[in-house]
UniProtKB/TrEMBL annotation:
<feature type="coiled-coil region">
    <location>
        <begin position="78"/>
        <end position="105"/>
    </location>
</feature>
<keyword id="KW-0175">Coiled coil</keyword>
<protein>
    <recommendedName>
        <fullName>Knotted 1-binding protein 36</fullName>
    </recommendedName>
</protein>
């Protein structure tokens, strides 16, 4: 509103280079500015106060939700971390067991291979007495 009223003002420059505003236009601007500063009725002030209470209540509720959300995510994060570590530990144990079984199988195969190699040698060389 103020911007509109300033457009209606008549401006001019005096001989000293100073800006001059027409007196009638100045009165209109002052009247419009005064109208915007008028205090509302008691009912209006109560309505505004009620809106401010709603704003305060909503802000408090959002703050509480943020705090409870942070706590919930922290708890979930801790549970997730613990579970992930547990899964990792279980998998490492399984793979270590597989490695142990493979080493035992390899040792058994090496032993069997040695026995077969000796048997083959004995069969290929019948002149050797045991």
């Amino acid at each position: 509103m103020e911007g509109e009223s300033r457009k209606r003002m008549k401006h001019g420059i005096d001989e000293n280079g100073q800006e001059v505003i027409d007196g009638a236009a100045l009165v209109i601007v002052e009247k419009e500015e005064t109208e915007t500063n008028i205090v509302g009725s008691e009912e209006m002030e109560l309505n505004i106060a009620h809106i401010f209470e709603k704003i305060e209540h909503f802000t408090q509720m959002v703050s509480e939700l943020l705090e409870s959300g942070k706590a919930m995510f922290k708890e979930l994060s801790n549970e997730f971390e613990e579970r992930l570590i547990s899964i990792h530990k279980e998998q490492m144990e399984k793979w270590q067991e597989e490695i142990k079984e493979l080493r035992l199988l390899d040792a058994s195969n090496e032993e069997a291979s040695g026995i077969l190699h000796n048997a083959r040698y004995v069969l290929q060389n019948p002149h050797i007495d045991s």
